[in-house]
Design brief:
Layout: H1 8-22, H2 35-68, H3 81-88, H4 93-103, H5 111-123, H6 128-140, H7 144-157, H8 162-172, H9 175-180, H10 182-193
Helix pairs in contact: 1-2, 3-4, 4-5, 4-6, 5-6, 6-7, 7-10
Length: 196
């Protein structure tokens, strides 16, 4: 099984702890580490592992709840709170930012904050809804050239996902927001009308 490198912070600690569990006696003659030093290293590694496990379980719990609420039009005010907390000070920060950007609605509220989140999320491996949503947010902010460029790139890469994304927009977004984004939606429809 190959593990992506961005989980190295977990794998390193896990490998050290697994190595410590293999034998009963440890001799480190050349390092001259005291028992206290070894104990501190073990405690720090264990704490890091526990914090990572806690954050991972928070993320998994949120994902399970999100899959149950996938088609809801209204979302509770604190719905994204676990992801926001993880995106600020967690070893799962990159995954939380990626999920927040993929799930946030392309609405004008908190526009600057959403665009900053988009910029962070697009630095990594962009997900299908993220690239479309970020282009829509750029359009709302008046950055039409960047919005159209990103929208067209998203259409080229995620062409097969466009109909589902447009349907999700239609089903979940207020009409006034959709009307503001009509230019990009028309570009998507025109691209879909062309033969691949």
């Amino acid at each position: 099984v190959e593990y992506p490198l961005w989980y190295a912070y977990f794998l390193g600690v896990c490998a050290v702890l697994m190595g410590l569990c293999e034998t009963r006696f440890y001799t480190l003659p050349k390092l001259n580490l005291s028992a206290l030093s070894l104990a501190l290293i073990l405690i720090a590694s264990s704490a890091l592992l526990l914090f990572t496990l806690r954050d991972y379980l928070t993320l998994e719990t949120w994902l399970a709840a999100d899959s149950r609420h996938a088609k809801q039009k209204t979302i509770a005010a604190d719905y994204y709170r676990p992801l926001v907390m993880l995106s600020q000070d967690s070893l799962m920060q990159s995954k939380a930012v990626e999920l927040l950007a993929a799930r946030m609605p392309p609405t004008p509220d908190s526009l600057d904050e959403k665009r900053r989140l988009c910029a962070k999320a697009l630095r990594g491996e962009p997900l299908q809804p993220t690239v479309f949503t970020c282009a829509l947010l750029d359009e709302m902010a008046g950055d039409t050239e960047v919005a159209e460029k990103n929208w067209r790139q998203a259409l080229a890469v995620f062409r097969s996902d466009v109909p589902a994304y447009l349907e999700t927009l239609r089903a979940t977004m207020p009409t006034d927001v959709l009307l503001r984004e009509q230019r990009l939606i028309d570009i998507a429809r025109a691209e879909l009308a062309k033969k691949p």
